[in-house]
Design a protein that fits this description.
Layout (H helix, E strand, L loop, with lengths): L3 E8 L3 H12 L2 E8 L4 E11 L2 E10 L5 H9 L2 E8 L3 H10 L10 E2 L5 E5 L9 E5 L4
Parallel strand pairs: 1-4, 5-8
Antiparallel strand pairs: 1-5, 2-3, 3-4, 6-7, 7-8
The protein binds ligand V0V and cobalt (II) ion.
The site of ligand V0V has 25 residues, from strand 4, helix 2, strand 5 and strand 7.
Length: 140
């Protein structure tokens, strides 16, 4: 069901500073920047590698307000890995299968994600403490 790791989401206080860090230390390149009001984030995708099933990225996330998913995470835990996004062929189908196994779905239906992807989150409490995102990419 999981085709690959699409991205690792990293929560940070200052997006521009973190972009500069990833560019200068690792030589990564920003391929997309978006504000996603629904998710409460300003985010950037930095390309890491290409694979048979698609590319992989680091997603840097800055909260738009303290009262957002990433804002609360930063207040509680500080900067660090926030979620893992796995590539799936069909996010609606994957949600159906995973939900049937008793895993709590944060999103019953796909949402708009970075670079035109359809995304949905699974609850970290049902995935061993890992906030897990399913990504049906439009960017093969
Ligand atoms: C919270 N918890 C986490 C967590 N965030 N555990 C692991 N990883 C995380 N990132 C734990 C937290 O420590 C609490 O456990 C418990 O879950 C409830 O958290 P809370 O403080 O009440 O926080 P809430 O109200 O923010 O709820 C947490 C959830 C929320 C996960 C339900 O953050 C959510 O809906 N996230 C999905 C949307 C999202 O994250 N969007 C931003 C990325 P204890 O302390 O009680 O044990 S947007 C994105 O990735 C895009 C656009 C994209 O890829 O394209
Ligand atoms: Co993400």
């Amino acid at each position: 069901m999981l085709l690959r790791i699409d991205h690792v989401g990293v929560a940070c206080h200052n997006l521009e500073e973190k972009i500069e860090f990833y560019e200068s230390v690792f030589g990564l390149t920003v391929v997309s920047r978006e504000v996603n009001e629904e998710q409460g984030v300003r985010e950037a995708m930095l390309h890491v590698a290409d694979g048979d099933q698609g590319a992989s990225y680091v997603q840097l996330l800055e909260p738009l307000h303290p009262d957002t998913a990433v804002g609360r995470f930063l207040a509680k835990r500080g900067e660090g890995v926030h979620h893992i996004g796995y590539g799936v062929a069909d996010v609606t189908e994957a949600l159906k299968e995973i939900g049937a196994k008793g895993v709590r779905l944060i999103d019953e239906r796909p949402r708009h994600g970075s670079m035109g992807a359809s995304i949905a989150f699974l609850h970290p409490k049902d995935v061993g403490g890992v906030l897990t995102e399913l990504v049906e990419t439009s960017r093969r």
